[in-house]
Amino acid sequence: MSNLNKKRKKLSEEIKEKGLRTTVEEKIVSSQEKLNAKLMAVPILRTKDKVSFVLGIILLMLSEFVVISLPQWMWLYYVMMLIPLMVNRFVSYHRSNAHYFMLDFCYYMQVWALIVIFVYPNDISLFKVFFGLCNGPLLMAVIIWENKMVFHDLDKITSLFIHVFPPLLSYTMRWYTNVENTTDVPITFYDMFCMVLFYVFWQFLYVLKTEWLDAEKFAKDTSLMSSARWLSSVQPHPIYKKMMKLTSNKATATQILVGVQLFYTIIAILPVNLMFNYHSFHLLSILVAIGFSSWYGASFYFESFTMNYTKRLEQKINKFYKNNKESIEGTRKPKKALPSSLQSFISFLKYFSLSLITLIGLMNLLILS
């Protein structure tokens, strides 16, 4: 913006020296003001994003209230949130040929959550398996895959929901509701083995569907996307690149995905016994995952989102000067300054943070009373 001000000052001096006619000046200034009005009118967020942002904040505060004050109703709250989010995700993913992502492990866990809630609510063996898979590989995926807490993006909020809410559900069921005899029955090595079996069962179904039953579809349609295809071609993960080097490029994307995920799942399951036995450790683990998600979201807002908007703004300004290079040989200083996107965004965050802190404070007072 400083370079732009220098240009304006230089052009203003040239006007005085050349003594151009007032009509020309007014025409140029009019064009500049129209551009400023356009730039001011460009929304930082789409209406859908704004609605998603508001819903994300409401979801955050309501979730805190339910977990703290109404843990016995967490299952109902989870189901009420799950259904519309999954319907929306399927529709949006199907439009972009990405619906095979909904065969991934995180969605498999949503199915098991519904089974635990409605079919076997008091089966301690099944609950322990559910608990371990939720708080092991599913919760750790928030950190590994960098699930971002970005309130204006419904897609990111949905991804965060399916990774964090099953652990929160298991937290309320373990410590506050009536899953029979959970206190007296610790997680054993046999339970951990069952967790791995449940994971292997999902992996078998996944490979069966994507590599055999629908292999012809994937061969014909290169735009059809799955985790294996995304991992290998669209956005190769560093782990994938490393494994390709170790196997001298002989392993397929599916083989690498299966092997790495199995190893990751076994490692992630190891600490779940501590979470099951110690309330503080379980709560801390969930808070750490949410903390990482908040950090990733903050990085997105301050590094990616703001930079991209500022870049788009500068491109429009440069395009205007390029298109009017010959006529803008002289102009007086515009009456209105161009908007500073970074300053506006920081100001927005400041007032939003104050409002959020106030709302959370009022919510806590309500809970305590």
TrEMBL record:
Q: How does it sit in the membrane?
A: Multi-pass membrane protein
Task: List where in the cell it is found.
Answer: Membrane
Q: Does the keyword Membrane apply?
A: yes
Q: Which GO terms describe its molecular function?
A: acyltransferase activity
Please provide the record's keywords in A-Z order. Answer: Acyltransferase, Lipid biosynthesis, Lipid metabolism, Membrane, Phospholipid biosynthesis, Phospholipid metabolism, Transferase, Transmembrane, Transmembrane helix
Q: What InterPro entries would the database entry show? A: GPCAT (IPR021261)
Q: Which domain of life is it from?
A: Eukaryota
Q: Kindly list the residue ranges recorded as spanning the membrane.
A: 51-68, 74-91, 98-120, 126-145, 157-177, 189-208, 251-276, 282-302, 348-368
The cross-references to PANTHER family, in alphabetical order and at most eight, read: GLYCEROPHOSPHOCHOLINE ACYLTRANSFERASE 1 (PTHR31201:SF1), OS01G0585100 PROTEIN (PTHR31201)
Recorded family membership: Belongs to the GPC1 family.
User: What name does the UniProt record give this protein?
Assistant: Glycerophosphocholine acyltransferase 1
| Natural source organism | Arcella intermedia
